[in-house]
Amino acid sequence: MVCIPCIVIPVLLWVYKRFLEPIIYPLISPIMNKFWTKKAVQETGMNDQKSNGTCKPERNNEVTANGSTIAADKKTD
Q1: What CA–CA distance (Å, rounded) separates 21 from 35?
Q2: What spans are recorded as compositionally biased (Polar residues) (predicted)?
Q3: What is the pLDDT of residue 35?
Q4: What is the signed CA dihedral for 11, 16, 18, 21, rounded to 10 degrees?
């Protein structure tokens, strides 16, 4: 047996996305743009290293030109 919120919540979300959001979004979007003017994702991390996009830095600070992983910690037989 399925609980009532497991049925009601998806149905309400579908009704909102399908019918209410196209009406409400144009009204609230100018207000939201005033508060959220920054971009959501910003580049952080390697401040001292510049990347030209050809090399990927690995976790152990080893860089490979073709993007393959250098497994220095694996045991060999």
Answers
A1: 19
A2: 45-54
A3: 83
A4: -170
